[in-house]
Hints:
The protein has 11 helices and no strands. It has helices spanning 22-44, 47-54, 58-65, 68-75, 77-80, 82-86, 93-108, 113-120, 125-147, 159-179, 190-206. This is TetR family transcriptional regulator.
Amino acid sequence: MNDAEPASESADEPPRRRRRDPEGHRAAIIEAARHTFAERGYARTTLREIARRAGVTHGLITRHFASKERLFLAAVPGNRDLEQVAAGDPATLPDRIAEAFVRRLETDAVNDPLIALLRSAASDERAAAHLLVAMQEHSAIVYRSVLSPGESALPDDDLDTRVALVGAQMIGVAFSRYIARTEPLASMPPDRLTEHLTRILRQILFG
């Protein structure tokens, strides 16, 4: 099957990618999705708009990601890269998570899909809750692979609860610093913020 669109494209659309390049297509889709979600929010973003920006067909997006929800989860940097960030010594997991989180948002909070999702939560509460739950479930799987690899959850295991609290803490920081811009978080130096967040995440995860 050819991924290219017919030649009757409108003049203002970017040319379709006519080569077979699955990894290149996937990267282009994720990049276009990241910017579109950030600009338009989750509810107002369409797969057709993402396809137009990425220079691919709508059908190619659904073949790669199946749904807008799955594409959003793939486009959120923290969710997408969590396995790489989390890998390593379990004792320093809070350090890696906090450092990556602060660095990512300090670099480009404006174009971060998570910030867009938090901004639009009031107008689309159901979609936001659904996506945040999916991100939390993914985080629980990754954290468990680091903190208790190969072990089954015991009846009194509260790791999922601790992971949910980690997520809530980070969402709170993201909202206060990058959306509401409330003090003292708004003007706190990034290294200080990372130190405070690391300490809190360590307390949540390890007690």
